[in-house]
Amino acid sequence: MSQSRLWSPAVSRLEPYVPGEQPKVLNLVKLNTNESAFAPSPRVAKALSADQIDRLRLYPDPNSTNLKMAIARHFDLQVNQVFVGNGSDEVLAHAFYAFFQQASPLLFPDITYSFYPTYCNLYGIEHERIPLADDFSLNLADYHKPNGGIIFANPNAPTGMLVGLADIRALLEHNRDSVVLVDEAYIDFGGESAVSLINEFDNVLVVHTTSKSRALAGIRLGYALGHPGLIDALDRVKNSFNSYPVDRLAELAGIASFEDDDYFQQGCADVIANREFCVEQLTKLGFDVLPSAANFVFAKPTFAPAATVFEQLRERAVLVRYFNKPRISDYLRISIGSRADMKALVAALKDIVQKG
Ligand SMILES: *Cc1c(COP(=O)(O)O)cnc(C)c1O
Description:
Homodimer. The protein is α/β, with parallel strands linked by helices. Helix content is 37%, strand content 14%. The strands form four sheets. A five-stranded mixed β-sheet has the order 2-8-7-6-5, sandwiched between helices. A four-stranded antiparallel β-sheet has the order 9-10-13-12. Helix 10 (261-285) runs parallel beside helix 12 (339-355). Bound molecules: pyridoxal-5'-phosphate. Pyridoxal-5'-phosphate binds at residues 87-89, 113, 153, 157, 183, 185, 209, 211, 217, 222.
């Protein structure tokens, strides 16, 4: 007999998020989960000293105050405007619980980060998907309607397309009584952050991750920035769930990363340069590439179906992401790697195009 008879009834109704594959073999060109191609700041390794390993017998600071101070300093905010969690996925989950369980539906784009509908399902949150335009642009005027909250990723995932700060400001001026959550996982690769709107609007929450632009996906560290009254709600949820979401090593690594701004800026600039190289090469090879402000591109091969090219790349040890979903099944999402990774991708694609 199936053990699902032992489950809470709600578990059978869950629709879990499926992350990109993390293959065990190492000699792959891995361009499928938008990780950084570069190592974290050398200061991170220094911060994780043997002395700190000894202290792992002790619980971490439940409030992660030193880390919040480093983040607040970086963004010129107060400590009580910062919330930290075990990856931005956890921060997002707490935000869904804290703000979006409302009488009116949560609004988000039809094509976006697929964890949003997953959290709605987990918490039973009513939601409405607003279609992106035919060219995949996000028109925030479409969100001027009654709602129990609004969430969008900027730049969007998996399109990489950016919406401007003026449009976000216009939305906030129109929408003052529900939380507008801007998921800025990729903002450091060319966008203008909505953090500048936090002191003006008490209902904007900006969520960031250290997984992409800070090359720390392995430590699981994300954060939210917003009015202290919003941070208070997140703290209430967090302290009802897990008192110590950020472990000692993650806190130290995070602080070290925020203290090395030169390294951070250089890493982002390198990703942007490699993205420009990649876009140029893909265009030459016959891809339609959407304008990207992220550390990945969303591109449609015109010489063969995307699903076929995905498989052919895989056979050549290059892993990208393919979504067999309405509207986007003709596209591949390709993470921006090192220059050598990008050259390996181009060589594999040339081989595919030649052999037909
Ligand atoms: C990668 C990503 C996240 C999750 O980041 P973690 O901090 O690694 O959990 C959140 N939102 C979007 C849009 C992402 O692409």
